[in-house]
Automatic annotation (TrEMBL):
Keyword terms of this UniProt record: Repeat, Signal, TPR repeat
Protein name per the record: Tetratricopeptide repeat protein
Keyword Repeat belongs to the record: yes
Signal peptide annotation: 1-26
Superkingdom of the source species: Bacteria
One of the protein's GO biological processes: receptor-mediated virion attachment to host cell
PANTHER family, per database record: TETRATRICOPEPTIDE REPEAT PROTEIN 6, UDP-N-ACETYLGLUCOSAMINE--PEPTIDE N-ACETYLGLUCOSAMINYLTRANSFERASE SPINDLY-RELATED
SUPFAM superfamilies the record matches: TPR-like
TPR repeats: 101-134, 135-168, 169-202, 203-236, 270-303, 304-337
One annotated Gene Ontology cellular component of this protein: cell outer membrane
Length: 453
């Protein structure tokens, strides 16, 4: 059986800079100071909103200062989860001063962080047109290029930002991320080194350099860096999760579990629970591992890796039926996951060799105990429909495995076809003229025809 830990999704994730006027929020390293309405403020969003509002509403505030305060308040509103109001605030600033580049930079960053990358590029390009000598504009656009995986273009923008501002620590850090995503880990480390030389108290940069050290096999340095990140900012669960991955990679599963515990305490997430489940599984504590995978899937029912790894735990416990169901769901959620597809194929072969397929007879591909839709209840109530549903599912999974071997695009197209069939089945059942059995038989025949090609 292949490893239950996916080498891609289990690795530490890099996080690009978050919004301020310079493209990142620095770690606070000094005693608490009076909060001012300024772009580089590390104040809590609610506090910053209040301070900026007071400045905006002060009759003595100049128009230029008021507009800058509105931009800073918009950034704080976005940080507080009120993104629509933040964008409306930025739009108000742009209406009053269409040549204010900082407003376009802020708009672009908010749009980038909310996944609206094309609109973000429009705003960031306008910011650069208005202020072509502003390093932050290029750095922010570099982050957008990183988001769309155009790493060479990102590096060009970071280079320009650093030409304009050679001591721009965040630009070094973000260029390091671009090198990392390109697989140029030594260059990434060099940029992180420079970023930390300039600003030695950025926890995120230590965490990102840790990931690069891990990639070149320097696990001890990786652990040192992420431990420093935790010391600077012990409130960030990702740092504990990343150190847990490092410790697990060194075989220290007890230490890894302690770090995952801390990450989950700070912010329960499916990936943290799945990583802890992996550590328990490595220690052969399969019941605790399965409990963690269950908890992960309650938080995120579409977290694909939890299905694959829970399937591996069921295999270790000797429950091939549940393992097969989990592997099938993992393949359905991500047909391009070669590990899940191989695991599904292998457990199917084991079941066939053992002559154990009888347990599937007249069982549909889903759990009848939790079925809620009327069409699913109808399938569960009719043994022949249940078997037909099982046959469709099995043939689909085999067709996906065959398609993925030839073309990822073909596998995705086949997945879309299957989803369309299920959605149409769910929507059409009970309507006049719809024959469920006929539709299912036609789908099975279609899948058989694909398999014969």
């Amino acid at each position: 059986m292949r490893s239950f830990i996916s080498p891609v999704v289990a690795s530490a994730a890099l996080t690009l800079a978050i919004l301020t006027s310079s493209g990142a929020r620095a770690q606070s390293t000094t005693a608490e100071r009076p909060v001012v309405c300024a772009a580089l403020s590390v104040a809590e969003p609610a506090t910053l909103i209040d301070v900026c509002t007071a400045l905006i509403e002060n009759p003595a505030t100049t128009e230029s200062e008021r507009l800058d305060a509105m931009i800073t308040r918009a950034a704080a509103l976005h940080g507080a989860g009120r993104t629509d109001k933040a964008l409306a605030e930025i739009d108000s600033v742009i209406t009053r001063d269409p040549s204010r580049a900082r407003a376009f930079r802020a708009r672009g960053e908010i749009l980038r962080q909310t996944g609206k990358v094309e609109a973000a590029f429009d705003a960031l390009n306008q910011a650069i047109r208005l202020e072509p000598d502003n390093a932050t504009g290029y750095a922010n656009r570099g982050n957008a290029f990183n988001n769309v995986r155009k790493y060479d273009r990102a590096i060009e923008d970071y280079n320009e930002a650093l030409r304009l501002k050679p001591d721009f620590a965040q630009a070094f850090a973000d260029r390091g991320a671009a090198w990392y995503f390109k697989g140029e880990y030594q260059k990434a480390i060099a940029d992180y080194d420079e970023a930390l030389r300039l600003e030695p108290h950025r926890a995120r940069t230590y965490s990102n350099r840790s990931a690069a050290f891990r990639k070149i096999g320097r696990n001890e340095r990786a652990i040192e860096d992420v431990t420093t990140a935790i010391r600077i900012d012990p409130t960030e669960p990702e740092f504990f999760d990343n150190r847990g991955l490092d410790l697990a990679g060194n075989g220290d599963y007890a230490g890894a579990i302690a770090d995952y515990d801390e990450a989950i305490k700070l912010r329960p997430e499916a990936k943290f629970l799945t990583n802890r489940g992996d550590a328990y599984q490595a220690r052969k504590d399969y019941d605790r591992a399965i409990a963690d995978y269950d908890a992960a899937l309650r938080l995120d029912p579409k977290f694909q890796r939890a299905y694959n790894n829970r399937g591996a735990a069921w295999v270790k416990k000797g429950d091939r039926r549940r393992a097969l169901q989990d592997y099938a769901e993992a393949v359905r959620l991500n047909p391009s996951d070669g590990t899940a597809a191989a695991n599904h194929k292998e457990i199917m072969q084991q079941i066939e060799r053992l002559g154990s397929l009888t347990y599937q007879k007249n069982l549909p591909s889903f759990n009848c105990a939790t079925a809620k839709r009327q069409v699913e209840k109808a399938i569960c109530a009719d043994a022949s429909l249940a078997q037909l549903d099982r046959n469709i599912s099995d043939m689909f999974l085999r067709a996906i495995a065959n398609a993925e071997a030839d073309s990822h695009r073909a596998a995705l197209a086949l997945t879309r076809q299957q989803r369309d069939f299920i959605e149409k089945r769910n929507a059409s059942f009970g309507k006049r003229g719809y024959d469920l059995r006929q539709a299912m038989e036609a789908r099975l025949e279609k899948l058989n025809a694909i398999a014969r090609q």
